[in-house]
Amino acid sequence: MTDKIKTKFSLGRGIIWVALTLFSAVQLFPLIWLIDFSFASNTEFFTSNLLIIPREIQWGNYPKAFTDGHFLLYLKNSLVVNTLAVAIVLALSICSAYAVTRMRWKFSQTAKNIILLGMMIPIHATLIPNYMIYDFLGVRDTLWSLLLPYVAFSLPQGLFLAASYMESVSKEIEEAAIIDGCGTFRLLGSVITPMMKSSLITVVIMTYLNNWNEFMMASTYLSTSKWKTLPFSILEFTGQYRANAAVQFAVMTLTAAPAILIYVLLSKHITKGVSMGAVKG
Amino acid sequence: MEKMLRDKRVIAILIAPSLIAFVFAVLAPILLSFVYSFTNSSGIGRFTFVGFENYSALAKDKAFWNALLNSALLAAGFILIQHPIAIFAAWLLDRIGGRAETFFKSAYFVPNIISSAVIATLWKYVYNTNFGLFNVIARFFGGEGVNWLGTGRAIWSVLIVLVWHGFGWGMLIYYTGVKNIDPVLYEAAAIDGCDDKKMFFAITLPLMRPVIQVNVTLALISALKQMETVYLLTKGGPGNETQFVATYLYKQAFQSGNYGYGNTISVVFVIICLLTTLFLNRLFRREG
Question: How far does the CA of residue B100 sit from the closest CA of chain A (Å)?
Fold first, then answer.
């Protein structure tokens, strides 16, 4: 019955296809253009065609991008910084969510509201003072100067998601575990965390999306290449190869690739994470 | 058990790291900003307290008001252009179903996953006067090449990039809203002889109201907080034409060496964001 009604009343399927294809063309064309010309030679850029078939595919653009863009070092830094940030945010979200939803103390709501306040604060308002603080403490240009703000600004959302999940779940299993003599920390690690798996995946994804592409804080607090992250590959490279657009296109394609790969692998979770994070954030 | 849940030591261990992170990375910097906002600090060397001088200068600063205007323009771009298309696309996705639904949904979201650094550099090329995509298209239609990031035009070019880049995110939130509508409603309406247009306006839109409110709030806040892409695309220029509040405070502190004044902008920035969030939450809560 459903099918019949749908065909009878639905907007012509042709029109739906045309509209959706048009939107996706607008969203994807600049990226297709990017990949296409990343295989061209620099002289071929001056064309009146939207896309071209390079006379000879310039694979050589990529190795240049790979080595001169410090690609591997910056990719490694991005992975290290992000993995640590995600792990810490996850642990702190679980602990603090338990403290404010289950533990009984006078200031539990106050503590929660204070941390959630972080969601409203514009990150970039802290660029100047944090620069001064890190400079004073001598942690500028270290891993800490990235990790600390990344964790602090992802934590409010993590706490929010974890706490709203804990509030909606019945306490019976926990009570049974406590009566059996399970301590708070073991309870958190082996009873609560496994139960929260799906909402914790959301925390992981939101934290990852917040920080993977972050650039302003990194460029303000870092000065040497030791801890620079993936976005720097492009920016340092554009300075170096100002005249060679084709190689720049290769480096852009290369730095975008890891994020796209992660998206393809996790797109289902990311879709869920974004919608949950938005509705609850 | 009661005793265990009241264990002060355990509570302290659980909550302290989060509070410390908040104090150290959020609260302390803002308080420091507040103190420095009353000084003429230049970052290095001595400085003196100048009272409310920076604040009164800010009230008269045309570039600052222009930055707020740019945020308002961006918010308008999000709400009046991006969101209607996003709702429409989300609705179409729901109707088309199957693999096409998954494919198009992913296609719309891909730009979002790519860093501002790539997006900004890519669009610099899209706007390139010689071989940029926009001018190739313009010439194809017999027009002339234009400097898209030049005076008078730059802010619109910046807005196009931001509206384009954020499309997938907004669309995905609307998509979840559309998916939460019970299909039985459409079936009942179809039996009553409703056509597509009527169903969209009588069922989809009204039921999406809470999602639209969330999305509008997010759009306004993100229009205010905008920084990275703009900074990498134009650095706020030419002049201060494409400045947003965050790029402007950055410029004042790190390029012009006006730390005191930069901190003043930071403090006002925090206040504006807090007030906007509180105002929108109250507005929509009262309505809902």
Answer: 9
The C-alpha angle B265, B258, A150, rounded to 5 degrees, equals 60
Of A48, A125, A252, the CB nearest to B269: A125
Q: How many CB atoms lie within 10 A of CB B243?
A: 26
The dihedral through the CA atoms of A73, A75, A78, A80 has a sign that is negative
Which two tokens mark B228?
């990275």
**Range A3-11, long-range pairs (CB < 8 A, 24+ positions):** A5/B187, A5/B190, A5/B191, A6/B190, A8/B190, A9/B190, A9/B194, A9/B195, A9/B196, A9/B199, A10/B95, A10/B196, A11/B95, A11/B196
**Beta carbons of A27 and B110 less than 8 angstroms apart:** yes
Rounded Cα distance, B176 and B130, in Å: 42
Cβ neighbours for B45, distance < 8 A, ≥ 6 positions apart = none
Which whole-number Å values give the CA distances from A221 to A70, A141, B84, in the listed order? Answer: 19, 6, 39
3-state helix, strand, coil in chain A (%, to 5): 75, 0, 25
Q: Give tens-digit pLDDT for A47-87.
A: 777 887 877 788 878 888 788 778 899 999 999 999 999 99
3-state secondary structure of B256: coil
DSSP string, A117-130: HTTTS-GGGGHHHH
- CA distance to A11, A160, A170, B87, per residue, from B172 (Å): 22, 21, 30, 9
Q: Which domains does chain A have, with CATH numbers?
A: 62-280 (1.10.3720.10)
* Local structure of B49: helix, strand or coil: strand
The DSSP code sequence of A20-62 is: HHHHHHHHHHHHHHHHHHTTS-GGGGS-S-SS---SS--TTHH
ipTM summary value = 0.90
Whether CATH 1.10.3720.10 fits B63-287: yes
Assigned token pair, A167? 């509030």
The radius of gyration computed from the CA coordinates of chain A, to the nearest angstrom, equals 24
Angstroms from B284 CA to nearest CA on chain A = 14
Judging contacts by C-beta atoms under 8 Å, the chain B residues touching residue A151 are 21, 25
Q: Do A9 and B196 touch (CB under 8 A)?
A: yes
Across the 288 residues of chain B, what is the mean pLDDT of every consecutive 10-residue run? 82 93 93 95 85 94 96 96 96 90 92 93 90 85 85 94 94 91 90 87 91 91 94 92 96 93 96 94 76
Nearest by CB to A267, from B17, B92, B106: name it. B106
Beta strands per DSSP E along A110-196: none
Residue A148 to residue A129: CA distance in whole angstroms: 14
